[in-house]
Amino acid sequence: VFIFIGKRGDQIRLLQWDQDGFALYIKRLERGTFERPRSSKSLLSSRELGLLLQGVRLESVRYRKRYMAAGRQ
């Protein structure tokens, strides 16, 4: 998935290759802006993408340890 955030920061576009073509998802906020990730890494996990779309600050997120069944990560 390729992520594009507009200049004003109130619109985000996700470009994804589907099995037979590209799919484009657009979300525009009525109020506020999306956070632009400040880290130098260019990859986001699916969890980080979900948080970004929900308006959660990625820099201040702290993950708490949770139980995971053996073999799942």
From TrEMBL:
It comes from the Bacteria. Pfam families: TnpB_IS66. PANTHER family: BLR8292 PROTEIN, PTHR36455. InterPro entries: Transposase_IS66_Orf2. This is IS66 Orf2 family protein.
